[in-house]
Design a protein that fits this description.
The structure is a single chain. The protein has about 250 residues and is of the alpha/beta class. It is built from ten helices and eleven strands. The strands form two sheets. The protein has an eight-stranded mixed beta sheet with strand order 4-3-2-1-5-8-10-11, with helices on both faces. Strands 7-6-9 form a three-stranded mixed beta sheet, with helices on one face. Strand 6 and strand 7 form a beta hairpin. Helix 2 packs parallel to helix 4. The longest helix is centred in the N-terminal third of the chain and has 15 residues.
Length: about 250
């Protein structure tokens, strides 16, 4: 499965390079980041017209380059934005537009600005607030018409979903959307892993694809599949492990 995914990534990334914007740190190394691309503004506007977005109070948006404008639009629309730092190394952060000067919304929507203007929020904080995410949005490396996606190969969105699911911030019916370039949409069938987060909607610069019966993972974190260095590099995983050990969170059944 890993070699199959890798071959698809390489094929898609080869075409995507013709539409992508280089990252200031990683150039066109798509193994390191999810790129912004020509037409992402049109895809963003398409998403913001979705009823699930318009009715949302809290929106989780991954720290992907192609979602920077969406993070800005969400703040401008009065929505609270939950996101993570790059590789989840410094955990989750909350952007509350009521606490940010509107002139700084654009800066707050960037990875550098988010940590200077937003507030860090732990899993315990979310539980105490009884925070509920109304919509999950991600970029990805490739995705098919059934909403089966995979990103850089690190599984960060699947970890974010699993952590938020474990603490009750999302459920199996929380909508999930992916913003991608048209060349990242595949017609071939794919088989998701138990932990793969399937998307309900795929949005490109030219179309919106709705997925029927998108199955979401309910297994939580599969600890036995995580390398020890992954746990030690991601503080929220350490916090979740402690919450489970203290019986404050029940580990979901696979």
């Amino acid at each position: 499965m890993d070699s199959h995914k890798s071959s698809i990534r390489q094929r898609v990334w080869s075409e995507l390079k013709g539409f992508a914007y280089a990252d200031s740190r990683f150039d066109f190394d798509f193994t390191k980041f999810i790129t912004d691309f020509q037409g992402s503004s049109e895809a963003t506007q398409r998403l913001t017209r979705m009823p699930s977005y318009q009715s949302a109070q809290y929106v989780f948006i991954t720290p992907d380059n192609c979602l920077e404008q969406l993070r800005y639009e969400a703040l401008a629309n009065g929505k609270l934005v939950l996101m993570t730092t790059y590789a989840i190394r410094r955990g989750f952060w909350l952007l509350d537009p009521s606490r940010i000067d509107p002139s700084k919304y654009w800066y707050a929507s960037t990875l550098d600005g988010m940590e200077r203007i937003g507030q860090p929020i732990s899993l315990s904080d979310m539980m105490n607030r009884r925070l509920k995410i109304d919509l999950m949005v991600t970029g990805t490396g490739a995705i098919n018409l059934d909403g089966i996606r995979f990103g850089k190969g690190h599984g960060f969105f699947d970890l974010e979903w699993a952590m938020l699911y474990s603490i009750g911030a999302i459920s199996s019916i929380t909508p999930s959307a992916a913003i991608v370039h048209d060349c990242q949409v595949l017609t071939e069938p794919l088989v998701p892993e138990l932990f793969d987060t399937v998307c309900d909607v795929v949005i490109t610069p030219t179309k919106l694809i709705e997925v029927s019966n998108a199955n979401k993972p309910t297994c939580g974190i599969l600890w036995e599949k995580l390398a020890s260095e992954r746990v030690t590099s991601i503080p929220p995983l350490q916090e979740l492990r402690a919450l489970i050990d203290d019986d404050k969170v029940i580990q979901p059944d696979p």
